[in-house]
Amino acid sequence: MENPLLLFPQLNTSASKDKLYYKVMKPAIKEEPNKASKPGAKQKRNRLSLLLQKPEFHESDHLGKPGNLTKAASVSPEEAVKWGESFDKLLSEKAGLDAFTKFLKTEFSEENIEFWIACEDYKKSKSAHELLPKAKTIFETFIQKDAPKEINIDFHTKNDISQNISEPTLRCFDAAQSSVYCLMAKDSFPRFLRSELYKELVK
């Protein structure tokens, strides 16, 4: 192939070279996605990484060990004590949500709170065209069989979501979110209040 710059001398500038390079390479770039037409594990991980880029998912990553949590979140003992009043109170405050998420990570069950947060974000969608991509990401990350962060919900609930995921509504994850909420409220929350992490916060 002849050098395009020799055929078009007027393009012999830095900016023009960049534009020409893009035009020449553009067909090759477009062909890349065809190499992996089937949604494999790598694509699932990519979807998950996009989901986890949301601030809600990594706000607490900088908190480190329980000893650093108090300092980083600047939580007063009085504030921490109020979290013990109710699970809703805990979830309604950023520092409380961060602390609870950190606790669930120590129990390797952080997928529950991450799913709950994802559902809260999903229900804030302002237009119909936002629903399908968000719903599919949640489904592939938390619901479908062998999902990277599969949550524990009953077959009936999972089946209902599977059948309706192609035309999702704002409430299509409500039953699953409610189930996960109850699990955390009845099981994880009491353990959190007895944990060393929480005891350090209320000192």
TrEMBL record:
Question: InterPro entries given for it?
Answer: RGS, RGS_sf, RGS_subdomain_2
Q: Which Pfam families match?
A: RGS
Q: Where are the transmembrane segments?
A: none
- Limits of the RGS domain: 86-202
Q: Which Gene3D superfamilies does the annotation name?
A: Regulator of G-protein Signalling 4, domain 2
Designated name of the protein: RGS18 protein
Species this chain originates from? Spizella passerina (Chipping sparrow)
